Amino acid sequence: MDRPQELRNLLSREELQARLDAETEPRTTLSFYRYAHIADPQTFRDECYASWSPLGVLGRIYVAAEGINGQLSVPASHLDDFRAALYSVPFLKDTRLNVAIEAEAKSFLKLVIKVRPKIVADGLNDATFDVTKRGRHLDARQVNALLERDDTIVVDMRNHYESEVGYFEGAIRPDVATFREILPVVEELLEDKKDQEIIMYCTGGIRCEKASAYYLHRGFERVSMVDGGIIEYARQCEREGLEKKYIGKNFVFDGRIGERITEDVVSHCHQCGQPSDRQVDCANTACNILFLQCERCADAYQHCCSAACRDFVQLPPEEQERLAPTLTFNGQRAGKARPRSSV
């Protein structure tokens, strides 16, 4: 049975884009999460949608029995109303809202709230350990102090396409495409370092909450996390005049793709090798791979990741539709995987 119309979007992408383009009021992009026990995730999801949609909230929110995880944008005139609505839910009272570094951006087209088995796909059996016994939260000043020590290990808990454009200097950056892949890789890498100081970080902190509890359960003794992730770390550094030890961009999962933390460009165009942190999706929708491309290569390859994709998009639309099911690009037909090293 379909849900009531007011609890889901009915507009086309074109209509949504036109509506967003017509907006003149600034928006604030933010994120939040909270682990909690939600008895009826579907009912809670519907209540959130009914409460937030009239406020003009746009974004992507996941609800599960274990809690809620959201990335969204709110019109400036309704920011206080949204905060009041959020805090009216007892377990969400005083939840920190991580305001984006580049906050005034049109980062989402519509409001999507989905019920999922978990708010982050981690592949863990939560019944085997206590997820509330998490690692120590570190503010920016504490992070910087620990990073000055030679015996501190810092681990990036994000995927390769996130860490490629920005990272804490000296961090271990696993070469994986999903969070569930990171957990066993890091455990194996640090198996003989369970007594050392380990700092983990991610975009907004949610992945490290679960990972730190898991690693403590697995025998690691000194596990800490960057409180609020890269977003909050950068804000604290700016507010307190601290050196930013995170360099480059912070990858974000919305229309902006990335927000700049420092002016450093630490990555390279996948096609010509020149410094570039411009991340784009391949213009060939049958490929759609996320990759790094400088402006010069964007012109040369018509915003495609390879010569094969460039040639494919030049075909007539009906020919593309006919051939797409029979072809593979970068080993798959869609998704954010690593592109080939040659084109």
TrEMBL record:
Keywords (A to Z) from UniProt: Oxidoreductase, tRNA processing
Sequence ranges assigned to domain Rhodanese in this UniProt record: 148-238
Pfam family, one: Rhodanese
Gene3D superfamilies per record: 3.30.70.100, Rhodanese-like domain (3.40.250.10)
Ranges where the record places region Disordered: 324-343
Catalytic reaction list: uridine(34) in tRNA + AH2 + O2 = 5-hydroxyuridine(34) in tRNA + A + H2O
Organism domain of life: Bacteria
EC number per UniProt: 1.14.-.-
SUPFAM superfamilies membership: Rhodanese/Cell cycle control phosphatase
UniProt record similarity statement: Belongs to the TrhO family.
Purpose of the protein: Catalyzes oxygen-dependent 5-hydroxyuridine (ho5U) modification at position 34 in tRNAs, the first step in 5-carboxymethoxyuridine (cmo5U) biosynthesis. May be part of an alternate pathway, which is able to bypass cmo5U biogenesis in a subset of tRNAs under aerobic conditions.
Name of the featured protein: tRNA uridine(34) hydroxylase
Species this chain originates from: Neolewinella maritima
